[in-house]
Every structure is written in C-alpha cells, then in structure tokens.
Design brief:
The chain is of the alpha+beta class. It has two domains: about 100 residues, PGBD-like superfamily/PGBD (Muramoyl-pentapeptide Carboxypeptidase, domain 1), CATH 1.10.101; about 120 residues, L,D-transpeptidase catalytic domain-like (Beta Barrel), CATH 2.40.440. The chain is about 25% helix and about 20% strand. The protein is built from five helices and twelve strands. The two termini are about 30 Å apart.
C-alpha cells in the first residue's frame, strides 16, 4: 500500500465555498461517515503502529469500563450518566464549570454537552473516557484543579491529542477546556485515489482562515471551521465527537462548542494554535 505525504489531500473547502464569513448555512446535517476532515502525512510504520495500538487500547478500556459500570450500578454505587436529571447533576455541572470545562449551562440535565465535559475531565485526569460520572470520576473531582496549559503567555489554543482536549489558554491559564476527537493515525483512501495517514499535525500554527457556516471539503462537510494548517486542518463542529480519535486529521468539537467559540471570539484569525 502506497502512503504519500499530502500535497492536495487536505480538507480545504472547494471553490464554490465563499471566503471568510461567507459560508452559507445549510439546514441538513452532514453524513457522519463522510464528513470527517482530511489529512495526509506519511508516518513511519512503527510510529503509526504505536498510535493505532494506543487508539485500540482506549477503545478496549472503554468497553471494560462500561462492564464495570454495570457492576457498580447493580451494587448501588453513585453513578450519573446521560439522561439523568436533578440536583446531583447540577452539582456535577457546577463543579466542572468551576474547573473550566465548558458544558453550555448548569441546568440539572445530563445532556450531551455535560457528557462531553465529563469526557474532557476524564481525559485531563487520566481516567477512562466514557462520559459517565462514577466513583473514580467523583473522587478526582473532589480535589482536582483546572487543566494545565503548556503555554505561559499570550492567547493560545492548545490541542492535546493524547488527552483529547482543546484548551483556550490566556497567559498560561485555561479559560475553557473542551473534549475533542482528532486524527486516527490510520491509513485511508482519499477520493483522489491515493492513500494517506489521518494524522493531526503537531507543531505551532496560527488560524489563517475561517468560514462561518457549512463548507464542503473533499471528504465531506464541516461546520464553521477555523483552519490552522495549510493541509486543510481545522477545528470545527461535527455531529459526532467520540471519546477517541476518529477524524481524518481535524479537531472535532460539538456544534454548540464551536458556536460558543465563534460567538465569544475565542479563536480569531491570527490566534496561535499549539498541537501536541
């Protein structure tokens, strides 16, 4: 199998998409199997194998954790999960917000956004990422501090691939933390017939282009993307943000999270983006 470095495989919008602020919103939802942004770079065989193994391990850990959750529920241990409502959920939400994990609002409803915030916290604390608040998660919450940024000055967006986090940092302090799903680091076939590796490029970049709406890329559609790498890599909204790497290279966020980032101008053009 031929694996090539990318020259034209990125998820850059097609020529029909307008420039900054000009993308037209489309009511239909993107196809979750096709709308993952693209990427390319060839990884060495051993590096790719290690990253793929890490992703497989994370999926296995999630399966084991789900089985453990069932046993805990039968034993009557404290568990909060999507669909739950009430004062306990509100307390969980308020604690997560206090630590900087964005979840929309603390309304006592364990929504998808609350689940995403729990996944972000679990990733930051080295727990299995399953989006369920159980004994281990509550134990960490009781004495955890805000997630730490690597940057020490200025406004920086940090994408921590190993922990599945996007951090909005201001002078070294994290203002908001979000869960993200980045590149799988697995080979995939591009519509141009070539095979590429789906990696999110590490390094220090800057946001250079953005589209306020849906845009169509070679592998599908992206919601309100903010591009930081010239191979067409962006952070953008998507309907599915699982607790493991699932994209072709971009950093996925929930639709609501990217909307919040846009409305609060947290990722303007020229903003530094650190990927590690």
């Amino acid at each position: 199998m031929l694996v090539l470095p990318l020259t034209a495989a990125g998820c850059v919008p097609d020529s029909s998409a307008s420039g900054e602020g000009g993308g037209a919103e489309v009511a239909a939802q993107p196809d979750p199997d096709r709308s993952v942004p693209v990427r390319r770079t060839a990884l060495g065989g051993s590096a790719r194998t290690k990253r793929q193994a890490a992703g497989n391990t994370l999926r296995d850990e999630n399966k084991d954790e789900r089985e453990s959750r069932r046993s805990q529920e039968l034993a009557g241990e404290r568990l909060l999960r999507p669909g739950h409502k009430g004062a306990s959920v509100r307390s969980l939400q308020q604690r997560l917000e206090e630590l900087g994990y964005w979840l929309g609002r603390s309304d006592g409803v364990y929504s998808t956004l609350t689940e995403q915030a729990v996944v972000a916290f679990q990733g930051a604390e080295g727990l299995v990422r399953d989006g369920v608040a159980g004994p281990k998660t509550f134990a960490k919450l009781s004495n955890a501090g805000p997630p730490r940024a690597r940057s020490t000055k200025g406004d920086v967006i940090e994408i921590d691939k190993s922990r599945g986090l996007i951090l909005i940092a201001e002078d070294g302090k994290v203002r908001w933390a979000y869960h993200t799903s980045t590149g799988t680091n697995e080979p995939y076939q591009h519509p141009n017939g070539q095979t590429y590796d789906a990696d999110t490029p590490s390094g220090k970049w800057k946001i250079y282009r953005q589209i306020d709406g849906w845009t169509t890329a070679p592998l599908g559609r992206l919601w309100r993307p903010k591009y930081f790498h010239t191979d067409g890599i962006a952070l953008h909204g998507f309907s599915s943000v699982p607790p493991y790497p699932a994209s072709h290279g971009c950093a996925r966020l929930s639709m609501q999270a990217i909307n919040f980032i846009w409305s609060h101008d947290l990722a303007p053009k020229g903003r530094s983006v650190w990927v590690y």
